[in-house]
Design a protein that fits this description.
This protein is α+β, with helices and mostly antiparallel strands. It is built from seven helices and 13 strands. The protein starts with a strand and ends with a helix.
Length: 248
């Protein structure tokens, strides 16, 4: 497998999504706009030459859009291999390159979000354990922070208190989200329209900068849905899923 690094110079022409073939789709455009502003923060996006089937995205933890205390670590936003490309060692290729790059940059190790059991849009805990990662912190909603230190006795990353105890004081449905993956530019307006039609209180909070994201009331900032103050899910909703949720 051949890999290519996406940069400011080739971002417009490169395919970055595992599911959307149209490079001009509003969701892809939104993610690319977010990426273009993160490269100066140290964002790395390494992908296969195949269209969006294998990629890893990571950034120095100090610039990650998550409420972490992980100074000196590299934070992995996403490690993804899909469909027929699974089972060929491509995840290992991408992770190994991330490790080499992070060591060259004098990082203490890697960290990434997961959970005890596999959840949508989170790293597979079985794979992480196989690669030497272990849990270093866990939030009340079961979202875990995993880490791979490069040396023994390295200080462990932790969640900030706001993320460790996910809760908000607002009633109704409240969605926190970013322009990262899952791509939300299309589906958030759909939920807003469904909520309006169903006369359901709904508020969407689009996290617009690093500081907002690093102080969000949830370890997962890409998509975190609350109801009456309680965290519900990180699984992206379309109209059918949201209506099913409302019916409950």
């Amino acid at each position: 497998m051949e890999y290519i690094r996406v940069t400011k110079d080739n971002l417009d022409s490169e395919h970055i999504c595992c599911a959307i073939s149209n490079n001009n789709d509003v969701q892809v455009s939104s993610k690319k706009a977010w990426m273009s502003q993160r490269f100066d923060d140290g964002l790395v996006f390494l992908k296969s030459t195949e269209r969006g089937k294998c990629f890893i995205e990571y950034i120095p933890s100090e610039n990650a859009w998550n409420p972490l205390i992980a100074d000196g670590y590299m934070y992995i936003d996403c490690l993804w291999v899909s469909g027929s490309f699974k089972g060929h060692g491509y995840s290992n290729d991408l992770l190994d390159e991330c490790i080499l790059d992070s060591k060259r940059k004098k990082k203490k190790g890697l960290c990434i979000l997961s959970s005890a059991k596999k959840k949508p849009f989170l790293a597979d805990p079985t794979y992480l354990r196989h690669k030497g990662f272990c849990v270093c912190d866990e939030a009340d909603n079961g979202i875990q922070l995993w880490y791979l230190p490069f040396e023994k006795n390295t200080e462990k990353p932790i969640f900030k208190d706001c993320a460790k105890h996910p809760h908000i004081d607002e009633t109704g449905y409240v969605l926190y989200y970013t322009s990262q993956c899952p791509f939300n530019a299309k589906y958030v307006p759909i939920l807003q329209e469904v909520a309006k039609e169903q006369n359901v209180p709904f508020k969407a909070i689009h996290l617009q900068d690093k500081e907002e994201a690093q102080n969000a009331p949830t370890p997962i900032t890409t998509y975190a849905l609350f109801f009456d103050g309680k965290y519900l899910t990180n699984e992206q909703m379309n109209d059918k899923r949201f209506l099913k949720l409302l019916a409950k």
